[in-house]
Design goal:
Strand content: 5-15%
Radius of gyration: 28 Å
Structural class: mainly alpha
Helix content: 40-55%
Number of helices: 4
Largest sheet: 3 strands, antiparallel
Order of helices and strands: HEEEHHH
Number of strands: 3
């Protein structure tokens, strides 16, 4: 009895079908977009990872519905589309090194960025103040189930200090970002 190998055509068909199935599954998984609205701030986040409270966008929704903040005026749209064939985009250089926005749009973006950074700075300063109060110069009041020298107390003091340092770095970074913004 002689060993007869499988025909290569059958093997390549099996490998091809497996690769196609895996590729289709991966493409399907990557195409899902979820929208999350923060109930407190109203901030909207779009992600490709399902999270608690996220709503999966339907297949009819498009990414162009996601607000990006670049809405040039009508006069610019008319100038940009003059002489272009129907269906041409208003900003043909988008995504390239020469892409730019008009001064008004940039001022709006800068103002929004300044406001967001200012709000974030105020929030971080409040958290820093709370962290300083909790840390109490390295001597926070012990909780009911811990003594001053107990390992649980020491671990909590270390965690409070770590949190305090984090908020200090955040405040410093936000102040630097605000200082770097063009006036």
């Amino acid at each position: 009895m002689r060993f007869q190998p499988r025909p290569p055509l059958l093997l390549s068909a099996v490998v091809g079908a497996t690769a196609l199935a895996l590729g289709t599954a991966a493409a399907f998984a990557q195409s899902e977009i979820y929208k999350i609205v923060d109930p407190v701030t109203g901030a909207v986040e779009y992600t490709n990872q399902p999270k608690k409270g996220a709503v999966r966008m339907s297949s009819g929704d498009t990414l162009s519905e996601i607000p990006i903040g670049n809405k040039p005026g009508k006069a610019r749209d008319a100038k940009a589309s003059a002489g272009k064939p129907a269906g041409a985009t208003a900003n043909a250089s988008a995504g390239t090194a020469v892409a730019s926005v008009d001064a008004g749009t940039q001022r709006t973006r800068d103002g929004t960025r300044r406001q967001v950074l200012s709000d974030e700075l105020a929030s971080e300063e409040k958290l820093l103040s709370d962290a300083r109060a909790s840390y109490n110069n390295g001597r926070p009041a012990p909780l009911a189930d811990e003594g001053v020298g107990s390992p649980r107390y020491v671990d909590r003091v270390k965690q409070l200090e770590k949190t305090l340092r984090l908020h200090e770095r955040n405040v410093t970074s936000l102040k630097q970002e605000l200082a770097n913004l063009k006036s």
